[in-house]
Structure formats: structure tokens, C-alpha cells
Amino acid sequence: MGLDRKNDLVINGFGRSNGGQFEDVVLNGKGTIDGDIECKMYDCNGMGTLNGNVTAEKVRINGKGKINGNIVAKDISVDGHASLGGNTLHESLRISGHCSIGGTVKGDKVKINGKAHIGGDCETEEFITEGIFTIGGLLNAEEIDIALYGECKVKEIGGQSIRIRQKPYGFIKFLRSLFPARLITDIIEGDDIYLEGVRAKIVRGNNVTIGSNCEIDLVEYYEESSIDKGSTVKECIKL
């Protein structure tokens, strides 16, 4: 097995390299790679730039990393500041820092504890967030659990179980007016829906619960619905 091991690519400080097939790729300084990369681990701890695509088991960005291409990886984690120009295909995507993704996101699990911007659609089995995010297209997941800490935006939401709730501000209540914890979207459609702090044009589902601080133009439901007195729903229709 040892004979099959490829060489590592390590850049400490300033450096530049072409792409290729490696065991591990580690950028600890201000390194630039021109070309596609295939490796087990892509680890950026500095201010690394990759002008190409990445195929890896794990991609980890702890510094200020930029990838101007697509990513196919088992695990992607961002603890620093990442700019990903293309699409991501993964099993697990975890964002604890700040991450901007230019294309679409597709995988098994997405977890956001920081701040994320996704330019296209986000399709995943699980979408769990306690951060702030913007999605330019459709968010589609079997299970959606969103804890709102600030203003989030998404074009449309579809899923089986959708739970969106506001986190309390404690004693610093004036922050709620400065940084409103709310989600803005056009359409939410799912089986079981619970919402707090949501502004939407249409909410449609089997069982729909509109909690506090919501502004909804139209609620359509098949089985049951309830609306909190602290929310505004212009029209509610049983289908």
C-alpha cells in the first residue's frame, strides 16, 4: 500500500505550484495553485488561492482561502474566511466562519454556525443553522432546522420537516431592532411547518403552525393550521 502513496504539496510562506495528484495539499502561507487538484486532504491555513477544481476526501479552510472552481469532497469545513467560486458536492458541509459559494450546493448535510452566502440552489438531506445565511435559489431538504440570529434570505424553501425559530436576545433587547432575527422568502412548502420571525408570500403544507412575529400573505394547508396572535396572516385557506 505504501508504494501507492503520492507526494504531498506543502507551501509555507510565498509560493506557487501547478495542480496535479497529491496525497495532502497544505497551504500555510500565501500560496497559489494553478490547475485542478486531486488529493486526500486540502488544508488551507493561510491565504491560499486555487485556480482550479478540487477533488478530495476532506477540504478544510482555517485561514482566508479562495477556490476558483468546483469542489467534490466527502467533508468540507470552513472555520476561517472562504470564497468558493463554483459548485460544491459533498457529504458534509460545515461553516463556522464566513463562506461565500458562487454556485450550487448539493450533499447530505449542511450545518452553518457562522455566515454563509450561496449563489444558487442548496439541495441536502439535512439543513441545520444557528447562523446567518443568504441563498439565491431554492433551499430543498428533508429536514430544515433554522435558529435565527439575524436576517436571512432565501428565494424558496421546500422540505418535509421545516422548523424556523427566533433565538432570544436576553437582556440586550435593543439588538432586535438593529439586527432583526427574521427570514425573508417568497414560498415555503412542506409537510410539517413551524415558523417564527418569517416574512413570506405563500406558506403551504399539511400541518402549518405560524408562531410569533410572522408576516404571511397566504397560508394554504391540508390538515391543520394555527396562527399566533402576534403574527399577521392576510389569508388562510384549507385545501
Summarize the model shown.
Helices cover 2% and strands 71% of the residues. The protein is an all-beta fold. The chain starts with 8 loop residues before the first strand and ends with a strand.
Could you explain the architecture of this structure?
The protein is mainly beta and 239 residues long. The protein has 1 helix and 20 strands. It has a 12-stranded parallel barrel with strand order 4-5-7-9-11-13-15-14-12-10-8-6. It has one helix at residues 175-178; strands at 9-11, 14-21, 24-27, 30-44, 49-51, 54-61, 64-67, 71-78, 81-84, 88-95, 98-101, 105-112, 115-118, 122-129, 132-148, 151-166, 182-195, 198-210, 215-227, 232-238. 36% of the residues are buried. The protein has a domain at 1-103. It is 2% helix and 71% strand.
The whole-number mean of residue pLDDT values reads 92
Query: Main sheet, how many strands, which sense, barrel?
Result: 12 strands, parallel, barrel
Identify the strand order in the major beta sheet. 4-5-7-9-11-13-15-14-12-10-8-6
Q: Structural class of the secondary elements? A: mainly beta
Order of helices and strands: EEEEEEEEEEEEEEEEHEEEE
- The share of residues in extended strands comes to over 45%
